[in-house]
Specification:
Elements: H1 5-12, H2 27-33, H3 37-41, H4 45-79, H5 91-103, H6 107-122, H7 125-132, H8 138-147, H9 153-167, H10 172-186, H11 188-200, E1 203-208, E2 214-219, H12 223-242, H13 249-262, H14 268-280, H15 292-308, H16 315-329, H17 331-339, H18 354-363, E3 380-383, E4 397-400, H19 402-408, E5 414-419, E6 422-426, E7 432-435
Antiparallel strand pairs: 1-2, 3-4, 5-6, 6-7
This protein binds zinc ion (ZN) (2 copies).
């Protein structure tokens, strides 16, 4: 197929990148950028930098599109929001989880995306346009969103205009410093209030690192308190160093902090209790007369078939019904498998035994929401069907964090356990996610 003349002009010649630093992003630029590797080898150094910059503009354009789609979906969900109900997630939180699952990003990343999408759609139209035109990248759009957060409309408008005026020639760090200074001048009270708000949300955070280590941070404290703690620890570390400790100063600081925070041992009673639980029970595995991968594949096929044959506006209901139907059809076999095991199925109590808890936590190492990473030992063991008629059994328990426990009860969402450890989520948009046990 022949290329349109204006594109052929751009892609056809050996020196196509020369002097095109502001060729705008969009379909034409995408064509220019899709040359094979060997074409890059033919370019001069200067042209390679032009290509990198052009690809970055194209990325900004695509990100603007991604955010616009998210804002549109969030707007639709907000229209159907019911009033406050602590048992379920708000429409806003629920759409965040839809985005997390669909884009395979963490809950935090999705929350940031939804928030940015909404701000760009409602309050920062010029920033949205600048991103779409490739004049700024996503990092700078985030800076403008952050600094103008919770300021009054006219201040936001003014700051946005000032920010965009020089943003394409500044790094995100330079941009942040410049407009933060201006925001403090324009709205000192609001900036102070924002800081107090952030301090109210102060917390201790833990995360794991790729190297197999973990980190701990005191977050959102007033800077003077953080600097005071750091200076105190540093002074003690320098004292040790002066006395001849061979460890580097940075290592001494963290070793001191660890001693300060480590605190006393667990009371002996708790340790004894844990040891008791560990030897009284072993974890029986359920008799597995259905291969879970085969069942999961069958479910996937069935739902894909439904989604191929149903008009889009009926999809969420049709998917939910199809999933529930399969869950119903499997009920007898599920029961039969579980009753073969005298212990657990239909266990009268609400609380699972220590052995059952361990079995469930081993089956799913994290919360069973597809994008959630919270370790199951820090989750609740949720009765997939609420206790009574739901049983306290491996066929009806799965780890859910608090947030996803509420999501499960939110309008438009369902969670079913088709087979012990094989769960299926259906979403307000009519998507579905099959969650398998970790070990199959
Ligand atoms: Zn059971
Ligand atoms: Zn979760």
């Amino acid at each position: 197929m022949a290329l349109p003349a204006e594109i052929a002009e751009v892609v056809g010649d050996a020196r196509e990148w020369e002097g095109r630093s502001w060729f705008p992003p969009g379909p034409q630029l995408a064509v220019c950028l899709s040359g094979g590797k060997e074409r890059l080898a033919d370019l001069t150094d200067g042209e390679l930098l032009e290509v990198a910059a052009a690809a970055r503009r194209q990325t900004s354009w695509a990100q603007a599109r991604e955010l616009a789609a998210i804002a549109e979906l969030a707007g639709r969900r907000a229209d159907g929001d019911s009033e406050d109900d602590a048992r379920v997630l708000s429409a806003h939180e629920s759409v965040t989880d839809e985005v997390a699952a669909a884009l395979t990003v963490t809950g935090n990343a999705a929350a940031t995306l939804v928030h940015l999408a909404e701000r760009l759609a409602d309050e920062l139209p010029a920033t949205r346009q600048a991103l779409e035109a490739g004049r700024i990248d996503l990092a700078k759009a985030r800076v403008i969103c952050d600094v103008t957060e919770s300021l009054s409309g006219d201040v936001v408008e003014h700051l946005e205009a000032v920010a965009l005026d020089k943003a394409s020639g500044q790094t995100s760090g330079q941009l942040r410093r410049r407009i933060t200074r201006m925001a403090r001048r324009l709205a000192p009270d609001a900036i102070e209030e924002r800081k107090r708000d952030a301090v109210r949300g102060r917390r201790l955070e833990v995360w794991e690192n790729p190297s197999g280590t973990a980190s701990l941070a005191l977050c959102d404290l007033p800077p003077e308190e953080i600097h005071a703690i750091y200076n105190k620890i540093s002074a003690a570390a320098r004292g040790l160093k002066a006395d001849g400790d061979p460890r580097p100063l940075g290592v001494l600081r963290v070793d001191l902090a660890k001693q300060l925070l480590g605190g006393p041992e667990f009371p002996a009673a708790v340790s004894a209790l844990l040891a008791q639980a560990a030897d009284t029970e072993s974890s029986p595995q359920p008799a597995d007369d259905v291969a879970i991968p085969a069942l999961a594949a069958m479910v996937e096929r069935r739902l894909a078939d439904v989604s191929d044959h149903v008009p889009p506006d009926e999809l969420p209901v049709a998917i939910r019904q199809a999933a529930q139907e399969m869950h119903g059809k499997l009920a007898q076999r599920r029961d039969a498998v579980c009753q073969g095991d005298d212990e657990a199925h239909g266990r009268p109590g609400y609380r699972p035994s220590a052995a059952l808890r361990r079995e469930i936590e081993t089956r799913h190492a994290t919360c069973v929401f597809p994008s959630c990473n919270r370790p199951s030992r820090r989750c609740d063991l949720d009765h997939t069907i609420p206790w009574r008629p739901g049983t306290t059994c491996r066929c009806n328990l799965a780890p859910l964090c608090r947030r996803h426990h509420r999501l499960k009860q939110s309008p438009g969402w369902t969670l079913l356990q088709l087979w012990p450890g094989l769960l299926i989520w259906t979403t307000p948009a009519g998507a579905w996610y099959i969650v398998r046990p970790d070990r199959t």
